[in-house]
Amino acid sequence: MARHRAPARSHARSTLAATLTVVLIIVAAAVVATRRAWPEEARVGTEETVGRSQPASATPTPSGPTPDERLAEALSSVTSDAPGRVAVSAVDVETGEGAAVGDEVVFATASIVKVDILAALLLRAQDDGRSLTPQEEQWAQDMIRSSDNAAASALWDVIGGAEGLTAANERFGLTRTTAGAEGLWGLTETTVEDRLLLLRGVLTDSSELNASSRAYARELMGTVVDGQDWGVSAACDEAGEALLKNGWLPRTETGLWVVNSFGLVERDGRRLLVAVLSDGQPDQEVGIDLVETVAERAASVVVAL
Fold first, then answer.
1. Where are the beta strands (DSSP E) in 156-239?
2. Where does the pLDDT of residue 2 fall: very low under 50, low under 70, confident under 90, or very high at 90 and above?
3. Which of 31, 208, 221, 302 is disulfide-compatible with 243, CB 3.0–4.6 A?
4. Is residue 230 over pLDDT 60?
5. Under 8 Å between Cβ of 226 and 260
6. Which of 152, 189, 184, 146 is nearest to 46 (CA)?
7. Residue 291 and residue 259: Cα distance in Å, rounded?
């Protein structure tokens, strides 16, 4: 799926890269539990592709700063006055070269957890030696392509809820993702590094999933409906393709937004896994602009490594 949105402009000018790291780590947003599977569903309506295979070196290279430091510098003019928090991680699928900022900061997933649900469903069917049922296929398509919440809730039950999601995520190597309690799948918590681990497990050959399951996930993430193809797709070049899932959620306590995007994008002939998570955004559009700009700059840094 080619991207349809142009990368957003940055909202501020330069500041020290160190400031970004301090802000990302110190500022905390409260996750509010409510009694519905999708806490703000009444307000949102119907919503709406591994960590680095080789960690970026923590030691400065002879040529200068580390990849993480380069990324922090590239983002400093974007985030110096930006609201809320943002974290990003990007990695080249083939080379393992990557960079991250805020990779240990925890965010609510909103609807990007639907990829976890899909992965758990496919893994469960695979373990049982069966194909998805027609009903499961319909739910999976609705859940990923149009981010249908009722379909996600139905499949949440099929996979065994939080326990089933946790078991599947452990098999994909995720260590910093906590399933939402009491059926509140939209309040699952995660990090950008865990998002890349999941992408590698769902979209690449390094996976618990077989080729057929991965192809199915790629098909769904590559055909999201118009209007939901923003986000990391901004990191694609004109000839590139994006496989992605986005999530957005206004928090009832603060009125501020969670806006997330992650997926696989093609840039300069390279395949990149990119995840951008944000919260504390004043509205959805501001969050989208921030996520897109951060994704584009992260991709540019990685292809230049």
1. 189-190
2. very low
3. 221
4. yes
5. no
6. 146
7. 7
Query: Which residue blocks in 27-148 are alpha helix, DSSP H?
Result: 41-44, 67-79, 113-127, 134-145
> For residue 220, what are its two tokens?
């769904």
Return the pLDDT at 60: 53
Specify the amino acid at residue 87: A
- Chain-centre distance of CA 107, in angstroms? 10
Question: Of the candidates 169, 212, 190, which has an alpha carbon nearest to the alpha carbon of residue 261?
Answer: 190
- Kindly report the average pLDDT of the chain as a whole number: 85
E-strand ranges in the chain read: 85-92, 98-101, 107-108, 189-190, 242-250, 257-267, 270-281
pTM: 0.82
Residue 225 three-state SS = coil
Compute the distance between CA of residue 214 and CA of residue 58 in angstroms, rounded to an integer.
32
C-alpha to C-alpha distances, 66 to 62, 98, 208, 241, nearest whole angstrom: 10, 10, 32, 28
* Mean pLDDT along residues 141-149: 98
Decide if 220 contacts 62 (C-beta within 8 A).
Answer: no
SS3 264: strand
What pLDDT is attached to residue 80? 87
pLDDT bracket for residue 249 (50, 70, 90): very high
